[in-house]
Amino acid sequence: MKQTKLSSRLYPIIRAVAASAVLPVLFIYVMIAKPDYAIMNALSHVVVPVAQTVGDVITWPIRIVGSAIDNVAEISSLRSENEELRTRLDQALANKNACDIAIAENNRLNRELRIVKSQPRDTVIADVIHDNSALGHNTYIINRGIRDGIEVGMAVANTDMVLAGIVIDAAPNFSRVRALTDSDTNIAVRVVGTGIYGFMAGNGSLQPTIGFFSDPEFQPTRGLKLVSSNISGVLPAGLVVGELIDDTDVRVLNPSKLSRVMVLKFDTHKNEYR
């Protein structure tokens, strides 16, 4: 039963294809044997579309293969172009990284040049080469010493002239500095813009504590700036020390973050710059 149905479907298709094949032959025969232009014109409206359809059916696999070949060639071209663009992008990124490094180095050199130009009279620039924190003590080593004019008692500041410690030991080529966070630190300070004095003491943490004594009525508040005072005869006056976090704790420089400092060469006996 199924074979009969299949045959009944195939026969019309075969007949249509056969008719399509016969029509062009008939058209050619009429053109040669009986060139009746009226008949030829009538047949052309039927034969030409049929022939075109038959040609499309016959050439369909060829066109599909040709289109696939064109697509493969286009994909290959796109891949080649993509690889070239990736190469150019990698080169551009490498150039950008090189430029970023050069810019960063240039900025660093400019900062150091500004430091050299703007550094106060009689200062020595030094690098921090080692730091030590243990049992409440916090000291660090700098690569300048007696040969550079460094003496015990001199103040050390960062490149923004913020107090970073006091020299407590000096050798020919290096010195040891006590940070403001060291438990042995105890320096006189003054509240900026006032005549209020007090003493700031290190306690081994990153936040020294302060007690005011010159005005019992003074109420310390967050954000007040502190500078060094020479009333104790240890440091020159006016060096930025830090700022109040609350009524007792002070934010100062973290010695572990220091990389370059300046030693202020002042007369430790007269407590003034040389």
Tell me, briefly, the overall form: elongated
- Got a strand count? 14
Q: How many alpha or pi helices?
A: 2
Sheet-strand content, in percent, reads 25-35%
| Integer-rounded radius of gyration | 47 Å
Major β-sheet, in short? 6 strands, antiparallel, barrel
N-to-C terminal Cα separation, in Å? 121 Å
| Overall average pLDDT | 76
Spatial order of the strands in the main sheet?
1-2-5-4-3-12
Q: Which class do the helix and strand fractions yield?
A: alpha+beta
List SSEs in N-to-C order.
HHEEEEEEEEEEEEEE
The unreliable regions are 115-119
The level of helicity is 40-55%
Question: Can you give a write-up of this model?
Answer:
The protein is elongated, with a radius of gyration of 47 Å. By secondary structure, the chain is α+β, with helices and mostly antiparallel strands. Strand 1 (123-134) and strand 2 form a beta hairpin. The relative contact order is 0.11. The strands form three sheets. It has a six-stranded antiparallel β-barrel with strand order 1-2-5-4-3-12. Strands 8-7-6-9-10-11 form a six-stranded antiparallel β-sheet, with no helix packed on it. Strands 13-14 form a two-stranded antiparallel ribbon. It has helices at residues 2-33, 37-118; strands at 123-134, 137-142, 155-158, 163-170, 175-178, 186-191, 197-201, 209-212, 225-228, 240-244, 250-251, 260-264, 266-267, 272-273. Helices cover 42% and strands 25% of the residues.
Give descriptors for this structure.
6-stranded antiparallel β-barrel; elongated; alpha+beta; 25% strand; 14 strands; 6-stranded antiparallel beta sheet
